[in-house]
Amino acid sequence: MAEHRAEVVTGAAVLAVALAFVIYATQGIGLTGQPDSYPLRASFRSVEGITVGSDVRLGGVKVGTITDLQLNPQTFFADAVIAVQTPIQLPTDSAILISSEGLLGGNFVEIVPGGAPDNLAPGDEIEDTQGSVSLISLLMAFVGGGSDSKASEDTAP
Predict the structure, then answer these.
(1) Which terminus has fewer CB within 10 Å in the chain: N or C?
(2) 26 and 41 part of one domain
(3) Long-range contacts of range 9-16, CB-CB < 8 Å, 24 or more positions apart?
(4) What span, in angstroms and rounded, lies between the C-alpha atoms of 56 and 72?
(5) Contact (Cβ atoms closer than 8 angstroms) between residue 98 and residue 131
(6) Residues 3 and 46 in one domain
């Protein structure tokens, strides 16, 4: 009888840990929603590394999440909807860009506030955007640029 109690207690503890992990994981990917937030829109040339649920940061602090990403068939840009916490009021000339946490880190969306006296209203579009920069493209340009300049030096009289 004592063996069965130990098994039941161990099973309950495992289920509690699993439930806590599931709750933590859904909060981490943004499935729980943003209470007290308002939507803003932005259109990026490239959103490589960003998905629905990615962090939106201001000064390094998370102030929102990406709630929707769609390809615009007219412009061929990626249209994003961002949920920003209500206490954060952004000036109309704010910029938004995709940043990287480092060489091996993930990408996130960074908001750079402007200095305009008026604030963005819910549903407004942040027009000053900068898409993600591909590390592979930069490396290929660096490697390719280095070999082109060396070849031109070799052919010079």
Answers:
(1) C
(2) no
(3) none
(4) 21
(5) yes
(6) no
